Amino acid sequence: MCVVELMASDDAPDLLSDASAGRPRAAVVREFAASELFDRTFKDGMELVEEVAAYLDGDGRRDSKLLSRATALAYAGESMKLTTRLMQIASWLLVQRAVREGDMAAEAACEPRYRLADAKTQAEPTNPELPIALVEYLVRAEKLYGRVLYLDRRMYLGEDAESAPANPVQSQLDRLTAAFGG
Q1: Which string of DSSP letters, residue by residue, matches 48-101?
Q2: What are phi and psi of 165, to 5 degrees?
Q3: Do 42 and 93 form a contact (C-beta atoms < 8 A)?
Q4: Which residue, 89, 93, 90, 100, is CA-closest to 30?
Q5: What torsion, rounded to 10 degrees, do the Cα atoms 132, 117, 145, 80 define?
Q6: Residue 31 region by backbone torsions, left for phi larger than 0, else alpha for psi between -120 and 50, else beta
Q7: What are phi and psi for residue 16, nearest 5 degrees?
Q8: Phi–psi pair at 63, nearest 5 degrees
Q9: How would you write 99-165 as a 3-class SS string?
Q10: Burial class for 25, CB neighbours closer than 10 Å (0-12, 13-18, 19+)
Q11: Of 34, 46, 125, 130, which one has the greatest count of Cβ atoms within 10 A?
Q12: Was domain 3-180 assigned CATH 3.90.79.10?
């Protein structure tokens, strides 16, 4: 389910439209932190972090030892990008949780230092011989980053869906579906 679908669902409050309706940002942030949408996003984010950690420490480590030197180097680079992206997501989610639990004022969460950077995604992984599991985690992380970036921009900067850039992750997902049959 994409972010737009989540926002349109009956069980998710229409928080993002409130952000652009002139309401104080801090109020929108507090409401989001208390929402089911936040619960689902937090759960998805932390589960992905745990899955990737388990993969990189287990099957991924074993897979990387079987790769050629050039592919192993690409694997190392892509796994660093993956863990960096996941830490950015987790940091953003933890700020929202701190607001929810009263450990951080919503006004403080509105500071620019807590904003996410624009996504800079690559069209394809750096090496076509990378393990498919790693590629799948890269795609999932970019998709989740896109969701979180969308929320960040709407809540904190008041950008609407029309002004947000096209989601490059969707094109990757479309390519995977075409290649492997969805």
Answers
A1: HHHHHHHHHHTHHHHHHHTS-HHHHHHHHHHHHHHHHHHHHHHHHHHHHHHHHT
A2: -65, 155
A3: yes
A4: 100
A5: 30
A6: alpha
A7: -70, -35
A8: -60, -40
A9: HHCCCCCHHHHCCHHHCCCCCCCCCCCCCCCCCHHHHHHHHHHHHHHHHHHHHHHHHHHCCCCCCCC
A10: middle
A11: 130
A12: no
Q: Would you state the structure tokens that stand for residue 131, as one six-digit string?
A: 């393990």
- 160 Cβ contact list (under 8 Å, min separation 6): 20, 154
Q: Does residue 137 contact residue 51 with C-beta atoms inside 8 Å? A: yes
Contact 99, 109 (CB under 8 A): yes
Spatial separation of the C-alpha atoms in residues 115 and 54, rounded to whole Å: 28
- 117 near 91, Cβ under 8 Å? no
What's the one-letter identity of residue 110?
C
> From first to last of its 182 residues, what are the pLDDT tens digits of the chain?
444 344 434 444 455 554 545 678 899 999 999 999 999 999 999 999 999 999 999 999 999 999 999 999 999 999 999 999 999 999 999 999 999 999 999 999 999 999 998 877 665 677 889 999 999 999 999 999 999 999 999 998 876 544 445 566 666 666 666 667 65
The DSSP secondary-structure symbol of 2 reads -
Reported pTM? 0.76
Q: Which letter, b or e, does each residue of 133-162 get, where b requires 16 or more Cβ atoms within 10 Å of its Cβ?
A: ebbebbbbbbbbbbbbbbbbbbbbebbeee
